[in-house]
Every structure is written in C-alpha cells, then in structure tokens.
Amino acid sequence: MKISLASDHAGFEYKEQISSYLTLMGYEVVDFGAFSLASTDYPDHAFAAAKAVADGNCEKGIIICGTGIGVSITANKVTGIRSANCSTVEMAVLCRQHNDANILNFGSRLITIELAKQITDAFLNTEFDGGRHSGRIDKIHSLTGR
Ligand code: RB5
C-alpha cells in the first residue's frame, strides 16, 4: 500500500520516525515534506499530500503538525478527503469504522511517538464498517461534491 506522508516543521521528527516505521512494515511512502526543522507552512505540505490521496496516487495519508489541527483543516478542504485528527487508538479505529477516513492526523506536541505508532497501526489495519455509515459519508460529500 502506498502512503502519502507530510508534516510541517513541528511534525518533522515524527514524520521521519513514522516514515521509517511504515517502510519497515512494508508500506511504500511518498513524502511531501517538510524535509527539515526549518519553519514552514503546514498548508503547503498538507494540501500536496491530501491531493495525492484524492487523485488516487496514494491509498491513504498521514499528515502531522504540532496539534494535528492545521493539517486536518487543510486536508479536509480537498474534495474526496476525510481527514481525522486522532489522539487515541480508539479514535483511530472509529475514524476508519464509522467515517472511512482516508487521512490520519496527529499532533507531535500532544502525543508520544509510541502512541503515534499505535494510532498509525490502528488506522491502517481497521476496515470501514459500511452499512448505515455509507449513507452518512455520501451525505457529507453531497454537500460540496466528491
Ligand atoms: C506550528 O507552530 C503550529 O502552528 C502547527 O504545527 C500546527 O500545530 C497548526 O495547527
């Protein structure tokens, strides 16, 4: 599976660690930066990574900033993206089961790297439940288009 990965400067170190972790687990990573700790604007990286998922070039995405909030707001502007900011494993499971989230966000300033890896595992290994949740997803996208 191809994973679109991005961060700003605040999420850079977590992105690097998550990238190695994903590669070790056999995922293919497409990295949209940041590529250093130098200050950068999260919308630039988040938009590019989200677009790769929306265009079908990557199956899922993981986008990190200090809180996960800025990158989540940005990614959700991209048509077809359902980006979920998760700070617990349960949120990561439920964003897949109920919301069919295709992008995961978390905040490097809010959770440990160990928890970030557990959240990543939960996000990548949980399937969408479908059923009653499908109609709700359709309603979300009918508001502004797929
Ligand atoms: C950067 O200082 C910080 O604002 C950013 O990483 C993020 O938390 C924004 O939502």
Largest sheet, in brief, is: 5 strands, parallel
The largest beta-sheet arranges its strands as: 2-1-3-5-4
Number of helices, where a helix is a run of at least 4 consecutive DSSP H or I residues: 6
What would CATH call the class?
Alpha Beta
Distance N terminus to C terminus? 22 Å
Order of helices and strands: EHEHEHEHEHH
Total count of domains? 1
Mean pLDDT: 97
Helix fraction by DSSP (H/I, runs of at least 4): 40-55%
How many whole angstroms does the radius of gyration measure?
14 Å
List segments where confidence is low: pLDDT < 50 over at least 5 consecutive residues.
Answer: none
CATH architecture: 3-Layer(aba) Sandwich
Which assembly state applies to the chains in this document?
Answer: single chain
What name does the CATH topology carry?
A: Ribose 5-phosphate Isomerase B, Chain: A
Number of strands: 5
State the secondary-structure class: alpha/beta
Percent of residues in β-strands: 15-25%
Shape: globular
Which small-molecule species are bound to the chains here? D-ribose
The CATH superfamily is identified as: Sugar-phosphate isomerase, RpiB/LacA/LacB
What is the gist of this entry?
The chain is of the alpha/beta class.
Record keyword descriptors for this entry.
6 helices; globular; 146 residues; five-stranded parallel sheet; binds D-ribose; Ribose 5-phosphate Isomerase B, Chain: A; alpha/beta
